[in-house]
Write a structure and sequence with these properties.
- The protein has 186 residues and is mostly helical.
- 70% of the residues lie in helices and 0% in strands.
- The chain has eight helices and no strands.
Length: 186
Amino acid sequence: MKRYAAGDVAAFERLYARHEGAVYRFLLRSVGIAAIADELLQDVWMSVIRSADGYEARALFSTWLYRIARTRLIDHWRARDPAVLVSLDAAARDDGDSHWAGALAADRSVEPEVRALDRAQARAFTCAVEALPAAQREAFLLHVQADLTLAQVSAVTGVGVETIKSRLRYASDKLRGAMQEWRNDR
């Protein structure tokens, strides 16, 4: 990022190539609509470009980038319907679900029936992630999909590491419960 700020366009291209896909997936899983995720992704990268001169490496670039992405998401939700906006910092609630489905598909066979089941299972998992409360979904996506550490997720969201751990535990419990039928079928 410092190289880009100094005028090295190739440095920006490397940053974009390295982070674009993961940030897009985070946005898409957060809003659920590809067109909106595309728009938000453009906003995120425009913010990166506009902020290049003032960028200070206080944390990893990815932490800074996901903080921008999260801010764009919050702005998007506020603009849509401020009355419906649920704070991402609201305390996580436990609804008693307690089973996590580990890997989606352990054995990838080429048989059409198995492949169809794998796709259905992946869709079920995606729906379960989308059904998580906003704070839990955000922590889960940043940790698992964006591959950020707990400390980085904490820095991006502005909440403590212990809160992030709790949100991830609750998310894992809910996902286990949602995927329980798939564990029993195989």
